[in-house]
């Protein structure tokens, strides 16, 4: 038999021997080899010491608020957006904030220079409509107003005519 320490496949057999999960025939073969090989004997003794230490190990009791703290940590898991933005967050405050402030000031300056405070504002939509009327339209509107006034006088003869 080749030494189990030297080959990876046989090393797994040696671990199975230490955990006592091998059949009787293979266990007998490894017993004979372990008596002869000091490297395998040292490995088996180390594994047995480890198994004994694990069996003797007493786990410390869990604190009363362990579950609460665990669930709080689970709930505080970081969202995917925070994970994406984490590398850029220092840049946003260190460089992004001054850049945004500068851009805002430049925008205000451009708007102020385009429309200075003393300059008249452009005409609104109402004045553009009045200026765009043709004289014929004005005459027609005045004629219709006269006609409505006459109609009102005929329908209600007792009312006084409003003065304009």
Key terms:
164 residues, mainly alpha, rod-shaped, 69% helix
Number of strands: 0
**SSE class:** mainly alpha
Compute the average pLDDT: 79
Strand content: under 5%
Rg on CA atoms, Å: 49 Å
3D structure, described in words:
The protein is mostly helical and 164 residues long. It has a domain at 8-56. The protein is built from eight helices and no strands. The protein has helices at residues 8-18, 24-36, 38-56, 66-75, 80-85, 89-114, 125-131, 135-155. Helix 1 crosses helix 3. It is rod-shaped. The protein starts with 7 loop residues before the first helix and ends in a 9-residue tail after the last helix. The relative contact order is 0.04. The mean pLDDT is 79.
Short note summarizing the structure:
The chain is mainly alpha-helical. It contains eight helices and no strands.
Strand-helix topology:
Elements: H1 8-18, H2 24-36, H3 38-56, H4 66-75, H5 80-85, H6 89-114, H7 125-131, H8 135-155
Helix pairs in contact: 1-3, 2-3
């Amino acid at each position: 038999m080749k030494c189990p320490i030297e080959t990876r496949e046989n090393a797994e057999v040696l671990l199975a021997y230490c955990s006592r999960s091998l059949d009787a025939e293979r266990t007998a073969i490894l017993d004979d080899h372990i008596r002869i090989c000091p490297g395998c004997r040292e490995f088996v003794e180390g594994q047995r010491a480890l198994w004994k230490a694990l069996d003797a190990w007493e786990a410390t009791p869990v604190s009363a608020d362990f579950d609460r703290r665990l669930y709080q940590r689970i709930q505080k898991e970081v969202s995917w957006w925070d994970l994406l933005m984490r590398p850029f967050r220092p840049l946003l405050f260190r460089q992004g904030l001054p850049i945004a402030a500068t851009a805002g000031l430049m925008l205000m300056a451009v708007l102020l220079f385009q429309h200075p405070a003393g300059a008249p504002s452009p005409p609104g939509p109402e004045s553009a409509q009045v200026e765009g009327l043709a004289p014929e339209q004005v005459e027609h509107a005045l004629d219709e107003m006269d006609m409505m006034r006459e109609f009102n006088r005929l329908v209600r003869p007792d009312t006084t005519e409003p003065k304009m």
